[in-house]
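Researcher: We plan to redesign the surface later, but first we want a full-length starting point. Tokens attached.
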């Protein structure tokens, strides 16, 4: 039997006293992380060996609690402090793997210090901390108390860990990691689809279906502009400026939540209606540097394809990515002839073989054909890989987007 880990996220409502305890815990975890990072940086500058994980834990937690300068570390759960160091160790391992070439993809920068002014603060409790979901629906956390949780669904199994997240809008979330059976397959269907992602139409399917781009950020631009102008008029470090900052963050959180909810519904519908789904492996990072950057980021292609990938793995569907250099737009889906490059304003074209093509529908059909060919050649999923994880549930990310509402099935593999 195959099991996978999923993340279930719910909104929590701590009391003012509990908010103070959480703020204290956020701060202690941040200090331990920074102390560990500083210790390793100083050792490197002095030419000393790399400080091991065990030695670092002993130095910045166990021994630090005995000093007057860090005695207040004992006021919070020790598990939270250990998990902060675990995040630091993971960051170092990712950095070393990227430098040596063992980690594929974009280069990973070395870990950097966390700030109390970061937009997103989070801590993580594991089973060792003995957190518990009570019968009355509250979440009991050590040295914090019983938090009120808005449950939108029941957890399928006992959680192995929970992360408490505070986003830029001042909202609190509890993110549970649970283990579920991966063989929750859907009834098989005969349909297979290729998807061409774009800006005018968010997605064009190989069967001719076109999904209009909602453009959530563009629709909220007027309100965001007004709030941002109001923020710019406030005096720095004033209370009114802090209030205006929260208002801007809430407006952006509403846009992000709406986009994510819409993408979840669309991706679920596509996975349910098709046995195999193929998409083009777009270079979103490169497209984000062009004059279309705002529209590209507003579309959210990467998050949408990630949803398709993990939902396909969970429900027994086939998912494949076609190489980004595959000429899906210029190739005739009828005869296979590859034409010259076409500007973006050319939305339809005729092939010498006599076939008339809609630019996007033709590209989607070619993506589907290339995905099927690669699948048949390999006898397995196109570019099989682990299901990509969403943003790390623990750690402070200053530029991270706001957290979501209750969302089921964000993979943490």
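Model: Full-length starting sequence:
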């Amino acid at each position: 039997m195959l099991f996978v880990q999923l993340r279930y996220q719910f909104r929590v409502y701590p009391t003012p006293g509990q908010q103070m305890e959480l703020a204290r815990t956020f701060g202690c975890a941040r200090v331990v992380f920074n102390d560990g990072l500083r210790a390793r940086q100083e050792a490197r500058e002095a030419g000393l060996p790399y400080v091991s994980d065990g030695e670092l834990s002993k130095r910045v937690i166990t021994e630090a609690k005995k000093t007057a300068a860090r005695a207040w570390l004992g006021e919070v759960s020790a598990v939270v402090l250990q998990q902060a160091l675990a995040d630091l160790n993971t960051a170092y391992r990712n950095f070393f793997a990227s430098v040596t070439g063992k980690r594929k993809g974009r280069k990973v920068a070395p870990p950097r210090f966390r700030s109390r002014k970061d937009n997103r603060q989070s801590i993580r409790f594991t089973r060792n901390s003995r957190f518990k979901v009570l019968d009355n629906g509250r979440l009991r956390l050590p040295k914090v108390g019983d938090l009120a949780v808005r449950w939108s669904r029941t957890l399928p199994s006992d959680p192995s860990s929970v992360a408490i997240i505070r986003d830029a809008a001042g909202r609190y979330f509890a993110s549970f990691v649970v283990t579920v059976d991966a063989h929750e397959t859907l009834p098989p269907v005969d349909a297979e689809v290729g998807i061409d992602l774009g800006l005018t139409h968010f997605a064009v399917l190989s069967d001719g279906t076109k999904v209009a781009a909602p453009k959530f950020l563009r629709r909220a631009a007027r309100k965001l502009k007004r709030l941002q102008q109001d923020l710019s008029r406030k005096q720095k470090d004033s209370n009114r400026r802090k209030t205006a900052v929260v208002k801007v963050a809430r407006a952006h959180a509403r846009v992000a939540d709406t986009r994510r909810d819409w993408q979840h519904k669309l991706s679920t519908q596509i996975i349910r209606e098709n046995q195999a789904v193929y998409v083009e492996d777009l270079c979103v990072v490169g497209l984000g540097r062009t004059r279309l950057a705002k529209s590209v980021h507003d579309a959210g292609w990467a998050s949408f394809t990630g949803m398709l990938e993990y939902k396909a793995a969970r429900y027994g569907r086939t998912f494949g990515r076609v190489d980004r250099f595959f000429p899906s737009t210029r190739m005739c889906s009828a005869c296979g002839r590859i034409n010259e490059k076409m500007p973006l304003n050319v939305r339809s074209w005729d092939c010498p073989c006599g076939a008339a093509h809609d630019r996007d529908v033709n590209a989607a059909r070619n993506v589907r054909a290339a995905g099927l060919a690669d699948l048949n050649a390999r006898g397995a999923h196109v570019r099989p890989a682990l299901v990509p994880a969403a943003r790390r549930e623990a750690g402070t990310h200053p530029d991270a987007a706001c957290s979501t509402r209750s969302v089921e099935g964000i993979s943490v593999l």
